[in-house]
Amino acid sequence: MDSISERFRLIPSGPVLNVLREQPAPAILNPIENATGKKLQPYSANAESNSGPELRRFFMNLRIKALTGILAIACAWTPFSNGQQRPVKTSTLRVVQMNGIDMAAFLATLAVDYEITIGLEVDPDQPKPQIELNLRDVNFSQILDGLVKAEPKYRWREQDGSIEVLPISGGSILLDTPIQSFQVKDVNRAVAVNRLLGLREVQAMASSMNLKPRPPNDPSERIKDEKLSFDLSGVTMRQALNRIASDSGGRFWVFRRYPDGTLEISLR
Length: 268
Hints:
The protein is α/β, with parallel strands linked by helices. Helix content is 25%, strand content 32%. It has two domains: 8-167, 3-Layer(bab) Sandwich (Phage tail protein beta-alpha-beta fold); 173-267, Phage tail protein beta-alpha-beta fold, CATH 3.55.50. The strands form four sheets. Strands 8-9-6-13-14-11 form a six-stranded mixed sheet, sandwiched between helices. The protein has a four-stranded mixed sheet with strand order 3-4-5-7. Helix 4 (189-197) runs antiparallel to helix 6 (237-248). The relative contact order is 0.13.
């Protein structure tokens, strides 16, 4: 069973699975194995499509294709650094169809589904980009390749076992601010982010860029009992956010700058 963002609910519709917005229910995606043991998994979303009853026929067709060797075998994924084990899901083949879906919501889904920390720095000219994807027989790295091809303003990279998606140009140097020391003990993710923004180095850099944090949202009930504790030194703000997201279990953060000179950091 794979998970998807709690904002969405998957329903069968024709030869794909579609997403309806704001329907909080779990997703069940059944992987199909081919003769080599590789898996092909539908992983799709369409913000405006209607449902239909042809899911059984779809899976039957997939099994036929898999058994006849038509499906490609996923490329190998580069091992992560610092001893972090490679999640086995990264080699799973998938069909990805997205139409008008928020990039941050999609990446948040990938982060939880693949159990990999992902950070998104949004292009300030488009704070909430919408994406369209139509990919077949792709693994995790190929999904990210398809994403940045569909949104050519962005690139992605792997850094210390985390995935970072950021603008090719116009990125914020604030996220690369060197941090001498950052310690938290028994706090939730919202408090950890607020303390990160309150560090002397971060405040000095934000002030030099005429940036001010937006008022934080009230923490949700599900994170009030979190107890994050770590001691970091010699890291950047971006790396500290990766650690907060990883330890909190949400595995995703997004950084946005707005035309009014404010910034916002959200964790899922």
